[in-house]
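A quick word before the example. In earlier lectures we treated sequence and structure as two separate objects. From today on, think of them as two lines of the same record. Here is Aminoglycoside phosphotransferase domain-containing protein written that way.
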Amino acid sequence: MRAWATLPPWARGEEPMPDTTTLCHGDLHLGQLVRHPAPHGPWLLIDVDDLGTGVPAWDLARPAAWYACGLLTSEEWLRFLAAYRAAGGPAVPADGDPWAALDVPARALTAQTAARAVTKAVAAGRPLDEVERSLVDACARIGSDCAADPSS
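And the structure line, produced from the sequence above:
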C-alpha cells in the first residue's frame, strides 16, 4: 500500500491520464512479440484486444518493472529498449534516460503485480516464491524511498 500511495493520482485512476491521444497496445508483454515468418521475419505485436489511447509508457511498464525488480537482466532490457527505440516506439525518448517516462508505470505495475502475488500465495496457503518475493521487495524499496524523499 505504501508503494501504491507513492503514485500520482492519475496513475491510481483518481484523475484523468495526462495523455489521451496516443494509441497504445494496452497489454504489451514479451510473450506478445512474435516473428513472422519464423524464425527471421520482422517482429510483430499481436493480441490487440486491449488497444486504446493513453500514456504510451504503460505499454513498457511490464518489461521496465521486471528490469527494475531484477527479473530481466540488463542485457535483455537494453536489447529490448534499443529495438523499441529503433522502431520509433512512442513510450520513451529516442535516446537518453527512459526512466522519466517509465518510472510511474513501472512502479504502478510492480505494486499491482506484488499485490496479486501476495493474494494468490495467501489463498493457496503457500509462501511467496522467488519471483513474488522480488516484487514484494521492490514495493518495500519504492515505499521506503518515497517515504524518505516525499518529492519522489
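Notice the following. Residues 33 and 45 are 5 Å apart (CA to CA). We will return to this example when we discuss secondary structure assignment.
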